[in-house]
UniProtKB/TrEMBL annotation:
Region described as Disordered: 1-24, 616-636
Name by which UniProt lists this protein: DUF1631 domain-containing protein
Keyword Coiled coil: yes
Pfam families listed in its UniProt record: DUF1631
Biased composition (Polar residues): 1-18
Regions annotated as coiled coil: 477-504
Keyword terms, alphabetized: Coiled coil
Length: 764
């Protein structure tokens, strides 16, 4: 747009106002008025909530000493509140006055060290580290949250200050300077550090959280005055997104604000920055040799990394069965990349730099720790660890080109690495016999090494390809997994029906001694009929009740008949027994001839019961037995059901030990097993050191057994909770982490740096 054609009341970037001029001074005074009014309101509101917060904590304190700390803090805050408020507002006022008069201090006008935050932690005493962490976390979180509005305020203030560069760290109403002003005012408060940390949280909640209103009012006021009324909230990077332009943006040019996707991610990043800052503050933590020479620019770093990347691309990706020496080579490359980079920089500029810019050194160390974690992460198979570790150079380039990589959970490079790790977690030689998953991961690694220059869109493209591969495999695996689950569910229903049938028959037999013929019918043919009735009609159906009434009648028909009334009762039972047997045996696929032969045997038995036929004597019984028809054949269709009652009742799968007899280590693992959810991956290893990775696919609502399948959806194993806990206690199975690789790595790095800091403090 041609400035000459713009309305006279519009101010654009080419139009620089003199802050000492009437117009510039008036606008800055308006900003000061807005900030003073709103901050006075915010800080007052904060102190109104301090008493309640400390009183609640005192009530919940774990002991009297802690309770007294909070009560003492309440009294001290009430006494010192006016002084703290005045001190805070006075410091903010001084910053605004200096800003309006153009007398900003050198420390403020310079660019803040990104990884150190806005507070120079090297000057902070060790006992103040916790306070520094709270402050820097607060600053980083709010700079991220308020990025859009704060960016607009910075740009408009820059215009009315004659083009002077205004950044988050130098904005007098930015989170950094406001937090520093409050920290200084808190020196007026003599209270336990726990009390101070509570007040900092309240400052974050009631002052920092309200800054969006201040910025929006400021932007609206300046827009009404014609200062950048059409300002976009994002600025296209210089150089069209090339390595040169992006590196320049990272080195300090105006860049698009970081828009993080969660407070937790921002807080974690700020903690990392703080720990790196504290790490540099101690002389015993090794840094680059401090020789003379200009610091390498981001562009030089990217150039040197590109050379190293091209060299790494010529090294073939490891085969499935990696040797120890090859794995060690990759590990050494990860650990020595920093020195290799310095050497390559020396080759490119003719002189090895002795020092790297703080921001770049921290980025190099952070990426190095990320890939060290990958090589140590037992959630990844060793073969995949080695493969993914080769991505260290591309990811270091990406982190230097785009500083937002570690701040954004949804950053394309981060999503790709998390996606590769998630796919790799399920890999095993058994489940990937065709090598499709291995080859897909290998291809992505090779393409990044060979093709990634400075175009960050490659991460989006490769992630889309990985997703497409995963989706096609997921559909096939889900079908196989569904078949396995249905088959398992069917077997369990069958076993449950068998056990129900066995219990019903055995409970009714009780202490009765049944004739072999009747016992055989109940324990084999009729037991199968009960099972099929339960499966087809349900275990509360009228058909099942009718089938159980037959069992009662059949057992009653074997009682001794000694009176005319007993004979009459037996004769009344027999027609119903015959009808039920015909119907039931036909349902379990008995042939008509076999049914007639069985009924003939029963007729003979009942005639003997009624005294209508002679009972064979002891001498006659063997001969009669020889003439007895052979046992009825069981149809093939129900052969799996024809097992003895004793086998059903003594099923070892049903035996779970009493809680009192469970070993302590197994009891501990039982707690972990009870928390498992479908979708959780475990690694199983057999006695011959064969490893298999399997996903918990299904927990049976009937038996409580856990079904595991591999990445192709094929069954690997199924366990009862006790069996699985025992296997885990013996070290033959372990649960794999379900959270993303990047998140696990960041937590591990924070833990590592925190322990380094603690060890350093202990030795001082």
């Amino acid at each position: 747009m041609n400035p000459a054609n713009e309305p006279s009341n519009i101010v654009n970037l080419s139009q620089r106002l003199d802050p000492s001029s009437g117009r510039g001074g008036d606008l800055l005074n308006a900003v000061r008025s807005i900030a003073t009014r709103r901050l006075q309101q915010y800080i007052g509101n904060m102190f109104e909530h301090v008493d309640d917060a400390l009183f609640d904590l005192a009530e919940k304190a774990e002991n009297n000493a802690a309770q007294m700390h909070y009560f003492d803090g309440m009294r001290e805050v009430r006494k010192r509140r006016p002084v703290i408020e005045r001190s805070f507002l006075a410091q903010v006022s001084r910053e605004l006055n200096d800003f309006v008069s153009g007398q900003r201090s050198t420390s403020q006008s310079g660019t803040a060290t990104p990884l150190a935050g806005s507070i120079e932690l090297s000057l902070v005493a060790d006992n103040e580290l916790e306070e520094s962490l709270a402050i820097t976390s607060m600053i980083g979180k709010n700079e991220t949250r308020l990025a859009r509005d704060l960016f607009a305020v910075n740009q408009r203030l820059s215009v009315i200050c004659g083009g002077a560069k205004i950044e988050d760290a130098t904005n007098p109403v930015g989170p950094a300077l406001l937090a520093q002003a409050f920290r200084l005012s808190m020196r007026e408060l003599s209270a336990d550090m726990r009390v101070k940390l509570i007040i900092y949280k309240l400052f974050d909640r009631y002052v920092m959280a309200s800054l969006d209103e201040l910025y929006q009012e400021t932007n609206a006021e300046l827009m009404r005055a014609g200062v950048l009324p059409q300002l976009r909230h994002e600025v296209v990077r210089p150089g069209g997104g090339t390595a040169t332009g992006t590196a320049a943006a990272a080195a300090g040019d105006v860049a698009a604000p970081v828009a993080d996707d969660s407070e937790a991610s921002a807080e974690l990043l700020q903690t990392l920055r703080t720990l790196f800052g504290a790490r540099r503050a101690h002389p015993d933590v090794p840094l680059s040799a401090l020789t003379q020479g200009p610091l390498p620019t981001a562009n030089e770093l990217i150039g040197a990394l590109s050379v190293l990347q091209s060299q790494a691309a010529t090294v073939p990706v490891m085969p499935l069965s990696t040797g120890g020496a090859s794995a060690m080579d990759i590990t050494q490359q990860v650990l020595q990349l920093k020195e290799q980079l310095l050497s390559q920089l020396g080759s490119l500029r003719g002189q090895k730099p002795g020092q790297i810019a703080t921001m770049d050194e921290d980025t190099i160390d952070l990426v190095g720790m990320l890939f060290e974690f990958i090589l140590e992460d037992r959630n990844l198979p060793p073969q995949m660890q080695v493969m993914l570790a080769r991505l260290q150079i591309p990811y270091l380039k990406a982190a230097i080109i785009d500083r937002k990589l570690f701040a954004h959970r949804q950053h394309p490079a981060r999503r790709l690495l998390d996606g590769l790790a998630e796919a790799a977690k399920s890999w095993s030689e058994e489940s990937d016999r065709d090598g499709r998953l291995h080859d897909t991961v290998k291809a992505i690694v090779e393409r990044l090494l060979q093709e990634f220059d400075d175009d960050m869109t490659i991460f989006d493209r490769l992630f889309a390809e990985l997703q497409q591969f995963q989706e096609s495999n997921r559909r096939r695996a889900e079908l196989a997994e569904q078949r396995v689950a249905e088959s398992t569910r069917g077997r369990e229903k069958l076993e449950q029906a068998r056990r129900r049938a066995a219990r019903e028959i055995l409970n009714r037999i009780g202490d009765h001694v049944l004739p072999p013929l009747v016992h055989g019918v109940l324990s084999r043919a009729w037991a199968n009929y009960l099972v099929l009735t339960i499966l087809r009609k349900g275990d509360e159906s009228p058909e099942l009740r009718e089938a159980l009434r037959f069992v009662d009648a059949f057992i009653a028909s074997t009682k001794p008949v000694r009176t005319p009334e007993a004979k009459r009762d037996l004769r009344q039972l027999l027609p119903g027994i015959e009808r039920a047997l015909r119907k039931g045996l036909a349902n379990v696929a008995f042939q008509d001839a076999d049914i007639e032969r069985l009924l003939g045997q029963l007729h003979t038995y009942y005639r003997q019961q009624l005294g209508e036929a002679a009972i064979p004597t002891t001498e006659q019984q063997p001969q009669a037995a020889e003439g007895t028809p052979a046992p009825l054949p069981i149809p093939e269709s129900i052969q799996p059901l024809a097992e003895s009652m004793a086998d059903l009742e003594d099923d070892p799968a049903l035996a779970e030990p009493d809680a009192a007899t469970v070993a302590p280590e197994v009891r501990e693992e039982l707690e972990h097993v009870s928390e498992l959810k479908p979708g959780t991956w475990l690694e199983f290893n057999s006695t011959d050191d064969h490893f298999e990775r399997a996903k918990l696919s299904w927990i049976s609502p009937m038996s409580g057994r856990y079904l595991f399948v591999n990445r192709r959806g094929l069954k690997v194993a199924d366990y009862s909770p006790y069996e699985l806990a025992t296997v885990m206690a013996e070290g033959r199975a372990r649960i794999l982490a379900s959270n993303a690789l990047f998140d696990r790595a960041m937590d591990a790095i924070v833990d590592r740096l925190s322990h380094e800091e603690a060890r350093t403090n202990d030795t001082e």
